[in-house]
Design a protein that fits this description.
By secondary structure, the chain is mainly alpha-helical. The protein has helices spanning about 5-15, 30-35, 50, 75-85, 90-100, 105, and strands at about 65, 70-75.
């Protein structure tokens, strides 16, 4: 894909997301996703000695997808891939339903006692 086409794809995705250049699911920025995988913003690995990454770079790897309805990061894509591999999409659907309709049940508030 030509560079101009990539820019158009990126800006169209930003328009769909209301100008938010973050993962729709986890809200990480591209910089934060790179950091999660062990890379600086420029794509160079950090802690080279610790992880043995001296010959690795992120020059050609996309860590954010801008092709869908909203931007999605590689971390969330890997999580969804793992859920699918475990054949637990129905569990994910149930969790999302609970998060939408039973928030109070999932995140109970501490009751404050009036005993003084």
């Amino acid at each position: 894909m030509a560079l101009d086409d990539k820019f158009q794809e990126y800006f169209a995705a930003l328009d769909r997301a209301g100008g938010e250049d973050r993962c729709y699911l986890c809200r990480r920025t591209a910089k934060e996703v790179k950091h999660f995988f062990g890379f600086d913003e420029d794509g160079e690995p950090f802690d080279i000695e610790l992880f043995g990454l001296e010959d690795v770079s992120l020059t050609d790897v996309d860590i954010m997808s801008y092709r869908g309805r909203r931007p999605v990061c590689a971390v969330c894509q890997l999580n969804v891939d793992a859920i699918a591999a475990l054949d637990e999409k129905d569990v994910l659907d149930h969790v999302l339903q609970e998060m939408t309709t039973r928030r109070e049940h999932l995140w109970p508030h501490d009751e404050v006692s009036d005993e003084s």
